[in-house]
Amino acid sequence: MTNQLKKILLGDQGIVLIFIVAFTIVALLVPNFLTERNMLGLLQSVVTVGIVACTMMFCLAARDFDLSVGSTAAFTGMVAVMASNTTGSILVGIGAALLCGAFVGFVNGFVIAKFRINALITTLATMQIVRGLALISSDGRAIGINDPGFYQLALSKLFGIPTPVWILAGLFVIFGFVLNRTVFGKNTLAIGGNPEASRLAGANVDKTRIWIFALQGVVCAVAGILLASRITSGQPNAAVGLELSVISACVLGGVSLAGGRATMAGVIVGVMIMGIAENVMNLMNIPAFYQYIVRGLILLLAVMLDNLRSSAFIRR
Question: What Enzyme Commission number(s) apply to this enzyme (predicted)?
């Protein structure tokens, strides 16, 4: 392999090239892949991972992790359903879920920033705590939705495209702008590159980290609300393993585990690659047990690519 080809494959355009090649091969070899029904189903299937990836990108870019996203999505989805059932207002349910998500994220960020506890350990702990709260509040059972209007959050369409897909697209645009065009985004990348240098340059590292995790919590709540609407109930065991899928998508998309490097375009491509992989396995009727192996291999591939990119970046 020539040096030029290595630069292309390991650069920002490399993941796009891989996606185009993979999409073309799948379209040619897998029956029914390019049908309108399957394309809409594919877009629907990546909504949860894509929404959470918008802010996981900031966590990883700042050299942090958030393993509590799956538990937070499940818990906030249940809060939305329970609050909506109790008050008879969908808006109250949504508001309560967003507040709970923001609180979980704030706690994560505050503990990490102020107590200097490793993000991996902190969010591993809150992953267990929040999942436990979801199970306790529901007595371990699914909570049905009383108001049929709640279903429309996930079932409604605009111009023939499901509303959750439009929400995902909007969040991609918003957080892409935040990353590239705001001081907050630039500080996030700077902190990931060198936290001490960022602090000396005047960036408020602790405040930025707390904001990143608070935003992560809010976005998890959005994902949890839409997920509860789509599965028509609040499920305490929903979104198990979501954190691994999200991290895999981000790292596949070029977000560095070492921090300091991220692009929204790359994250979008990473999310789509994860979605296509699962979609193809379902179309080919591959048993769910084998799909765990494929997800694990994708995560391993993502980390290997990140190591290669980091090595290439250092050599520059």
Answer: 3.6.3.17
Label residue 283 exposed, middle or buried (CB < 10 Å: 0-12, 13-18, 19+).
middle
307 located within any domain: no
Least confident of 10-14, 57-61, 71-75, 262-266: 10-14
133 lies in some domain: yes
**15-29, 73-87, 90-104: least confidently modelled range:** 15-29
> Is the pLDDT score of 314 beyond 50?
no
297: Cβ contacts below 8 Å, ≥ 6 apart: none
| Cβ count near 286 (within 10 Å) | 14
How would you class 89 by CB atoms within 10 Å of its CB: exposed for 0-12, middle for 13-18, buried for 19 or more?
middle
Distance (Å, whole) CA 188 – CA 109: 14
Domain count of the chain? 1
Instruction: Output the pTM of the full model.
Output: 0.93
The CA distance from 105 to 107, in Å, is 5
CB neighbour list of residue 250: distance below 8 Å, 6 or more residues apart: 53, 56, 57, 60, 262, 267, 270
CB atoms closer than 10 angstroms to residue 32: 8
Residues 6 or more apart whose CB falls under 8 angstroms from that of 211 comprise 109, 184
Q: Could you give the 3-state DSSP secondary structure of residue 142?
A: coil
Is 284 a residue whose pLDDT tops 50?
yes
CA distance 99 to 78: 13
